[in-house]
Amino acid sequence: MTPITEVEGRRLALSNLDKVLYPATGTTKGEVLHYYAATAADVMLPHLRDRPLSFLRYPDGPEGLRFFTKNPPPGTPDWVRTAPVPRSDDPDARQVLAQDLPSLMWAANLVVEFHTHQWRQDSPAVADRMVFDLDPGPPASAVECCVVALWLRERLAEDGLSSYGKTSGSKGLHLLVPLEPTPSEEVMAYARKLAVEAQGALPDLAVYRMTRALRPGKVFVDFSQNAAAKTTAAPYTLRAKGSPAVSAPVTWDEIEACGAPGDLLFLAGDMTARLERHGDLLGPLTDPGQARPLPGI
Questions:
Q1: By the 8 A CB rule, do 250 and 163 touch?
Q2: What are 171-201's pLDDT values in tens digits?
Q3: Rounded Cα gap, residues 288 and 128, in angstroms
Q4: Using alpha carbons only, how large is the chain's radius of gyration in Å?
Q5: Averaged over 109-121, what is the pLDDT?
Q6: Is the four-CA dihedral 97, 100, 105, 106 of positive or negative sign?
Q7: Is residue 97 a contact partner of residue 53, using CB atoms and an 8 Å limit?
Q8: Which of 99, 205, 233, 241 is deepest in the core (most CB within 10 A)?
Q9: From start to end of the chain, where are the E strands?
Q10: 246 near 270, Cβ under 8 Å?
Q11: Which of 99, 91, 57 is nearest to 74 (CA)?
């Protein structure tokens, strides 16, 4: 029998709670749901609210079938809000919004990675944050990503912009920058400019082109996730990897001190202590007072 629970007045059917999703750690679906409800919700929801969601679903764990979806899945409750996100192949397309704890838990029960656009549903294609996805090509690792991140922090600061880091939850690092609302195409152009500059300043370490042949041993400075149609793994989401790794905010001290890939790997079980110590390190991203204008290109 599927357990029924009530979350803030909404009835949820939570299924397969004893199912092991992460065999390497023995983490069950019930433990995943507990992570979202008890650990992540308070800090995660401000980063999700009003942002149309895409999901990478992995209902049988990271080693099972995985598929990416933008449309609300069949059976979505009528109390889960959605927003119009027209696409060329579907002008009537809508995507889910996680506005509250019941919506978050309903989505988490599907076993998903949460991915968000850089804009809010009331201003499509007008970004209020910029992202750089630093992706290492082996044998490069998170260590090299941190070197590139530090260069980008200083370069952004020259233009009056503050940046904040989080792990990708995989091999790399994300840098996020709060912005005054700016058309996504302008944010994309500026991010590309800095990615090109990063390659020029760090030619043995950074590359701005996606071409696989250029990437071994270097960090790909991916600026493309600033495109209006693209999404990025949300802060605090679990990833569909071998262990329940979190896309976890990190301090600049941690980035500066990173000496081994494992130094910036955080699992669901690490997050309660981290949040007690640091709070939400990405809090400035949800504070309009921290937003700054994008410089001219």
A1: no
A2: 999 999 999 999 999 999 999 999 999 999 9
A3: 9
A4: 19
A5: 98
A6: negative
A7: yes
A8: 233
A9: 4-7, 10-13, 20-22, 27-28, 53-57, 67-69, 82-84, 94-96, 112-116, 126-136, 164-167, 173-183, 206-207, 219-222, 232-233, 249-250
A10: yes
A11: 57
Residue with tokens 């199912």: 19
- Only one residue has tokens 């530090």, namely 150
Q: Would you state the structure tokens that stand for residue 296, as one six-digit string? A: 């001219």
Measured CA distances, 128 to 53, 136, 154, 284 (Å): 16, 26, 20, 12
pLDDT at 211: 75
Q: Report residue 1 as tokens.
A: 């029998």
For the whole model, what pTM was predicted? 0.96
Quote the tokens at residue 214. 């250029």
Q: Is 169 exposed, middle or buried (0-12, 13-18, 19+ CB in 10 A)?
A: buried
- Type of residue at 29: K
Residue 215's pLDDT band, with cuts at 50, 70 and 90, is confident
CB neighbourhood size of 292 (10 A): 14
